[in-house]
Every structure is written in structure tokens, then in C-alpha cells.
Amino acid sequence: MTFKQLVLERESLSRDKLLFLLLSVSCLLILLEVGLILVNLKQFPPKVPVFYSMPWGEKMLGAPIFLWIFPSISIVCVVINFAIISFLSDENKFLKRSLGGSAAVIVFSSFYGLFKIVELLI
Questions:
Q1: C-alpha angle with apex 38: 120 to 112, nearest 5 degrees?
Q2: Residue 122, Cα to own-chain centre: how many angstroms?
Q3: Residue 56 and residue 35: Cα distance in Å, rounded?
Q4: What pTM value is reported for the model?
Q5: What would the pLDDT profile of 37-96 be if each residue is shown by its tens digit?
């Protein structure tokens, strides 16, 4: 992809107000996730409940460093979905908005899960 194509795609993204809003909200929530972890980092106990799919007890606990899984998954999801969006033509407006919306939903779910874990611990 050339520089000219990247500039044209950025202009295309800013023309679609919904996609721009979804990207902005996703980035804001990712920054809030990172901030939530950094602000409360010193207050976390040695083991935090992270793996809720595991059986109750010691198996569902992990070191506080595992809380970084939440913003990492969010970042990967946003980057992959918006990379795919950048390769789609303007004719695929529904698919572009669906990918942007799914990225925003995943980022919001990640933020909500992290918020509930931090709220439980603090």
C-alpha cells in the first residue's frame, strides 16, 4: 500500500462519521483500560481473578500482569478490523460498519470486564 493510498483511506475513514466515531470510542476505551490498570497497579493483591472460565478456586487466579490481556486483545481486535476495513472498497459500506461495530463491541466488553475485576479488588 502506497502513501497516497493510505492518505486516501484516512480521508475515506473521516468521511464516514459512524466509522470515525467507532474508531474514536474504541481508542478512548483502550486508553481507559490502560489507565485503569496503571492507576490501580500498586493496589492489586498478588493474585487476581482473571480466568473466569476455569473452575472456582486457585485455577482462576493469576498474577496482576495478566490484566494486560484485556487491553492487548482490544488493540489487536481494533488493528485487525480497521486494517481489513482499509482494504475494502467504498461499495462495502455495510461490511465496513459491521467490522467497526464489532471492534467497538469487543473493546467495550473488554473494558467492562476489566472494570468489574478492578472494582471487585479495590
A1: 45
A2: 23
A3: 29
A4: 0.84
A5: 999 989 988 998 888 777 888 888 889 999 999 999 999 999 999 889 888 877 888 999
- The end-to-end CA distance of the chain, in Å, is 46
- Bridge partners of 49? 61
Nearest by Cα to 70 from 33, 25, 15: 33
Instruction: Report DSSP letters for 60-97, one per residue.
Output: GEE-GGGGGHHHHHHHHHHHHHHHHHHHS-TT-HHHHH
Q: Which of 80, 83, 78, 94 is nearest to 28 (CA)?
A: 78
Residue with cell 500482569: 65
Question: What letter represents residue 18's amino acid?
Answer: L
Q: What is the rounded distance in angstroms from the CA atom of residue 42 to the CA atom of residue 37?
A: 9
CB burial string 86-104: b at 16+ within 10 A, e below: beeeeeeeeebeebbeebb
